[in-house]
Amino acid sequence: MQAGLVRIPEEIRFELLRLYVGIEDIIKSRLLEFQNFDKNDVEKLFSEMSFCVLTPQSRAKSADAAVRELVKDGLLFNGTYHQVADVLRKWNVRFYEAKARYIVHNRYLLKDNGAILKSALRLNSFECREFLVEKVWGFGYKEASHFLRNIGFTGLAILDRHILRNMKYMGVIDEVPKSLTRSRYFKLEQIFIAAAYSLGISPESLDLLLWYRSTGEVFK
């Protein structure tokens, strides 16, 4: 299905908009938190980046708890690989060994008060995402989009398994792809964005709405 030809069945449109009305204030409050993220706080940026490194195939709440413990114990920025890995394992983060390596490696972005990262964040959403995919270990397009959304960028889609399954439910894709190439990601992203606007809400709002539909909560 082409992005410009998105058609959501009326009964599904009604169900989604009814659900949205019930949690609209919660969604708007969370999006405001994202928009107010302090992009000059390098440690906060790195913490959010690390959270997004940990989320693939792991529970978001577990990833968040792991990052919070790493920060509290002074390990996120200074801990050894083994110390970081032990905390990730404690919180049942999948592939904790690889993800611990990613976090330790990505500390190079903290040099000179995060000058490299701050420079990238002055780019537009799409240019910045390309930088992140290239430079951040553990980031593909989904993770980079997740990070950017959480720090206030807009116009991107976070195509995780929850969103893709909901896109199929909405009838805007025929099947959930087993893998996503760069070009396939961009194509599905445009379909997702078109679906959001066809409902009269922002892509960021639709993302949180579909997450709520799948998990029963609005998180990040």
Key features?
single chain, 220 residues, mainly alpha, Endonuclease Iii, domain 2, Endonuclease III, domain 1, 2 domains, 11 helices, 66% helix, globular
What does this protein look like?
- It is a single chain.
- This protein is mainly α and 220 residues long.
- The protein has 2 domains: 3-34 and 157-215, Orthogonal Bundle (Endonuclease Iii, domain 2), CATH 1.10.1670.10; 42-150, Hypothetical protein, domain 2 (Endonuclease III, domain 1).
- The protein has helices at residues 10-35, 42-54, 60-72, 81-90, 96-106, 111-120, 125-135, 141-150, 161-170, 182-199, 203-215.
- Helix 7 (125-135) crosses helix 8 and helix 10 crosses helix 11 (203-215).
- The longest helix is centred in the N-terminal third of the chain and has 26 residues, at 10-35.
- The protein is globular.
- The mean pLDDT is 95.
